[in-house]
Design a protein that fits this description.
The complex is a heterodimer. By secondary structure, chain A is α+β, with helices and mostly antiparallel strands. Chain A is 24% helix and 33% strand. Classes of the chains: A alpha+beta, B mainly alpha.
Chain lengths: 381, 291
């Protein structure tokens, strides 16, 4: 078990493709760290640098206090689980799991004992004689895990290990991996593009975009206090509503103008956010569950029309357009298009397409972002 | 107790629904295909049949058309050291294939899985060597091998065969390994192997179909070759079977039954090698294509 420290780590492919840009991050002993981000954000490259499968262009990377920039993968004492499992097809499950120990020179008895131990943890005892091709996806995944845990390494590295499984099995294996990691207490770096996996598995989550670390925090803090517009939009399903509007903080009130519609938010926002005093453009973020339907119009409500209704069983997602506005949601790009909002509602809420609804943005849970660089305007945690 | 199935009555036959036209067409298509394959099989196997029948006749019987005799086999063994020549061919073949595999397999692994400068250019250069016919380079090869003093025994021929077979084997191994996921190699590296370890303990075991393909194709090519054996193996005691048969055929009077017996001995090992490895052949040749 060991601490892992990325200190200004950069990876440049070719002449100018910065896959990872100045990544600084410390992963504590026994911590489950998830790297999450869209395709091409550099999360896998960061993991491969940690495994020793990619050279580091600049910066330093240490495992257990030892700089490993120029250390061969086999001397780093890390174990990796790959996306497509990468099981050795010509070996039985038992040999697959014990292979690294055999290379290390452990005795036969020791290998047998450790393989049996891992097989028990992973419920693989009945499959030890089988070849990988005779196993199901979930079983193969467990063998890949077994190959990693049997070594008792300083760190586990997992590169989207669940992406080849079906949805149900993915949920099961998610719990299984988290259980094993907590049981063994080994520092783990887990790469995924699935923010649900990130939220449910990680002690902390590092969100990456275009090679840069955007924010690293606990899943709940990422959700509640995103550092910028990207994190706010990426974490959460359905994503946060992000709306360009004009805000002004003055005369003991925070007024937010959505075109001709105006709502007022509590004055205490000014103590935690650096809000502009006179109507500058900002991005307001509201989670779908914080869009509340109210009975009638008031000073804090927005008039909307139901454009689409998605019944998901346990909840209904209602797509709303703001009436009489010239603002836009940030994903629309162009101004003067109607603002769309997604609201999460109870399964028995009676709404139909075309209905006019009055909604309120939960006054305690609004987020404000700089309209030019996307950074959060929050000044206090 | 057994129950005999009774043929269907006339009325039952009438009631039975007619087979769909597409199914009937499929049946016809299958029979046509079967007929064509039978024709091909006859064309391919007929020479072997003639070879076997002819080798079991004396010269007189061969000319008259009937009879059975082992005389041709005696003539064959009296005239040429057939078993020694089979052994020579086996030695040359095995050693050449060993060299081809030892060079082609690591080269294919390197071209497909390692990143190094100008790898594509080198690979293209190597593959283009496959296009050069043997006859075009035979004389320069002969001069070089003679200068090295290797035209007497097996070594010169082994070198030439290995040089001729390596480009193809490298190409085939490269194509094959491109179909092997990179993660498998990386898993081995993270597990504690170096590249040599990965090659020996992971790559070779999963490359059995490709190894079998190279072995069969090169075996047939080298075993059947006359030209290199004739030029590069000048010791008569070490000449291969193809040269032996050529000597037999070039005699003042050629015994056709004895020649057929020799040809049969010559053809059998290649056929056995092919039959032994055929289940790997298709896989070895096609893997990597669908990537």
């Amino acid at each position: 078990m060991a601490e892992i420290i990325f200190d200004g780590v950069t990876k440049i492919f070719g002449d100018d493709i910065r896959a990872v840009d100045d990544l600084s991050l410390a992963i504590a002993e026994g911590e489950f760290m998830v790297f999450v981000g869209p395709s091409g954000c550099g999360k896998t490259t960061a993991l491969r640098m940690l495994a020793g499968l990619e050279d580091i262009t600049s910066g330093s990377l240490s495992i257990g206090g030892r700089i490993v920039n120029n250390v061969l993968p086999k001397h780093r004492d890390v174990a990796m689980v790959f996306q497509n499992y990468a099981l050795y097809p010509h070996m039985s499950v038992e040999r697959n799991i014990g292979f690294a120990l055999k290379i290390r020179g452990d005795s036969k008895d020791e290998i047998k004992r450790k393989v049996d131990e891992a097989a028990t943890i992973l419920h693989l005892n009945d499959f030890l004689d089988r070849r990988p091709k005779a196993l199901s996806g979930g079983q193969r995944q467990r063998v890949a895990m077994g190959r990693a845990i049997v070594r008792n390494p300083q760190a586990f590295l997992m590169d989207e290990p669940l992406s080849n499984l079906d949805a149900k099995l993915r949920v099961e294996m998610r719990l299984e991996i988290a259980r094993i990691q907590r049981l063994l207490g080994v520092a783990t770096v887990y790469v995924t593009h699935d923010q649900v996996e990130a939220m449910t598995m990680g002690d902390r989550v590092a969100v990456m975009r275009e090679g840069k670390l955007q924010q690293v925090d606990t899943p709940q803090d990422l959700y509640d206090r995103p550092a910028n517009e990207f994190v706010a939009g990426f974490m959460g399903s359905p994503p946060m509503n992000l709306i360009r509007c004009h805000a002004s903080a003055g005369n003991d009130r925070v007024a937010v103008h959505f075109g001709h519609q105006v709502i007022e938010l509590p004055w205490n926002y000014t103590s935690s956010h650096a809000l502009p005093e006179s109507g500058l453009e900002v991005v307001v973020g509201v989670r779908p569950e914080d869009v509340l339907i109210v009975d009638g119009a008031s000073t804090n409500t927005l008039e909307t029309r139901v454009e689409r209704r998605e019944a998901l069983g346990a909840e209904i997602l209602v797509h709303l357009s703001l009436l009489d506005t010239t603002t836009s949601s940030t994903s629309d790009g162009e101004l003067s298009r109607p603002v769309s909002l997604v609201a999460k509602m109870g399964p028995r809420t009676k709404v139909s397409v075309g209905d006019i609804l009055y909604v309120q943005l939960s006054p305690e849970h609004a987020h404000f972002f700089d309209a030019t660089n996307g950074d959060s305007l929050r000044t206090r945690p | 107790m057994t129950t005999l199935a009774t043929p269907p009555q006339e009325s039952e036959r009438e009631e039975a629904p007619p087979a769909p036209p597409s199914q009937a067409r499929r049946h016809v298509g299958r029979w046509i295909l079967f007929g064509m394959m039978l024709c091909v099989a006859v064309i391919m196997l007929y020479p072997f049949w003639v070879m076997i029948i002819t080798s079991l006749k004396s010269e007189t019987q061969f000319l008259s058309g009937g009879g059975f005799s082992w005389l041709s086999w005696k003539t064959l063994t009296d005239n040429i050291p057939i078993f020694q020549e089979v052994l020579s061919s086996t030695i040359v073949c095995s050693a050449s294939i060993f060299v081809i595999l030892c060079v082609g397999l690591p080269a294919g692994f390197a071209f497909s899985k390692l990143r190094f400068r100008a790898s594509t250019t080198i690979f293209l250069g190597l593959v283009s060597a496959m296009m050069v016919p043997l006859q075009a380079i035979l004389m320069p090869e002969f001069v070089n091998v003679t200068k090295l003093g290797l035209t007497g025994g097996y070594f010169g021929a082994i070198l030439v065969y290995a040089a001729l077979g390596t480009p193809f084997s490298t190409f085939l191994f490269t194509t094959y390994f491109r179909g092997v996921p990179d993660e498998l190699i990386e898993a081995g590296i993270v597990d504690g192997l170096g590249y040599v370890g990965v090659l020996g303990r992971l790559v070779v075991p999963i490359a059995v179909p490709a190894i079998a393909t190279v072995t069969v194709l090169q075996f047939i090519q080298i075993w059947d070759d006359l030209l290199v054996g004739l030029l590069f193996i000048q010791n008569t005691s070490e000449r291969p079977i193809t040269v032996g048969l050529a000597v037999l055929a070039a005699g003042r009077t050629t015994s056709i039954p004895a020649l057929m017996a020799g040809s049969l001995v010559s053809a059998l090992p290649a056929m056995l090698v092919y039959l032994g490895f055929q289940r790997y052949l298709v896989k070895g040749l096609t893997m990597g294509i669908d990537r």
